[in-house]
């Protein structure tokens, strides 16, 4: 049974990257179902965010906060303004993301012939991973991963590395999230026509390959955010179908790494459970 979307009435939802693409559709769906919405997107998206808000049926339940999610001060302001306006934050959708505009291994040289720091690669990791970690929410969190968080076939180095990081964040946050009563889940879209896929969307469609619409992905995001049964789950959305994949992965570990190693991992995990978590090393200095 899909969760009842009416439970969104009077909940407050922040969607990072909510001015465009999948995030903008998530904003519409949350709002249509009674939520207060906060669009947290870059200052350059102001007019898209304002157009989106004026297209909503009730703009008193909508707020735009210009935000760079990789900047902690911006994030503090985002939470402050959301709480001032709506009294609290119940759901955060960590959706903002970007893809590099040049290849990672294309290192440039400076005027002295020295290799230049790969700043574009760092920028992508800062947005996609650090930005998703810049999150002090205590409600329901949905991380927007990607099939690139599971597979590396397209060779987009920084994007894939950062999205694998999102899956790591999903898995590693469960212990403390359960302790705090926070639900952390993910949605991993496959091809969905938006700005990110704009340079090959046409070719994808001409090939006749199935594609998600932003509505399909937004609905998976909204359902995941309110489904109290979901903790540490990830919904793959591909060709309009939605499938939970973290449980399936956990069940397949013995086939993947062998029953003996799976057993060893389980026993090691049990020890950490008994110790109340992984005992952290002291700082060296
Ligand atoms: N479209 C797809 O096929 C696809 C597939 C897998 C995953 N995703 C993921 O879905 C999410 C949404 O992407 P989309 O396809 O809607 O792309 P999009 O480019 O249409 O939207 C991304 C939004 O993020 C915002 N953003 C970028 N950097 C930001 C920053 N530093 N601070 C705040 N906002 C920032 C952009 O301004 C934009 O509004 C991303 O995390 C993306 O990686 C998309």
From TrEMBL:
One of its GO terms (molecular function) is oxidoreductase activity. Keywords: Oxidoreductase. It comes from the Eukaryota. The keyword Oxidoreductase applies. InterPro entries: NAD(P)-bd_dom_sf, SDR_fam. Pfam families: adh_short. The keyword Transmembrane helix does not apply. Gene3D superfamilies: NAD(P)-binding Rossmann-like Domain. Belongs to the short-chain dehydrogenases/reductases (SDR) family. This is NAD(P)-binding protein. It comes from Glonium stellatum.
């Amino acid at each position: 049974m899909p969760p009842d979307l009416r439970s969104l009435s009077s909940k407050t939802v922040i969607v990072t990257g909510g001015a465009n693409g999948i995030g903008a559709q998530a904003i519409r769906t949350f709002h249509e179902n009674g939520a207060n919405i906060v669009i947290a997107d870059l200052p350059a998206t102001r007019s898209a965010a304002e157009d989106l808000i004026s297209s909503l049926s009730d703009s008193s339940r909508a707020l735009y906060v210009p935000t760079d999610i990789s900047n902690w001060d911006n994030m503090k302001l985002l939470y402050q303004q959301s709480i001032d306006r709506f009294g609290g934050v119940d759901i955060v959708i960590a959706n903002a993301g970007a893809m590099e505009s040049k290849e990672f291994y294309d290192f440039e040289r400076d005027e002295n012939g020295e290799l230049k720091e790969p700043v574009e690669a760092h920028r992508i990791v800062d947005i996609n991973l650090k930005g998703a970690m810049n999150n002090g929410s205590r409600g329901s969190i949905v991380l927007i991963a990607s099939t690139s968080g599971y597979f590396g076939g397209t060779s987009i180095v920084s994007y894939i590395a950062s999205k694998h990081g999102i899956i790591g964040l999903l898995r590693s946050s469960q212990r403390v999230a359960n302790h705090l009563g926070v639900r952390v889940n993910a949605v991993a879209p496959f091809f969905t026509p938006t700005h990110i896929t704009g340079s090959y969307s046409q070719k994808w469609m001409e090939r006749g390959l199935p594609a998600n619409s932003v509505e399909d992905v937004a609905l998976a995001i909204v359902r995941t955010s309110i489904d109290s049964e979901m903790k540490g789950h990830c919904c793959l959305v591909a060709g309009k179908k939605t499938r939970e994949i973290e449980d399936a992965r956990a069940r397949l570990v013995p086939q993947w790494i062998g029953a003996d190693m799976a057993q060893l991992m389980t026993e090691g995990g049990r020890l950490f459970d008994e110790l109340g978590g992984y005992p952290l090393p002291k700082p060296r200095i």
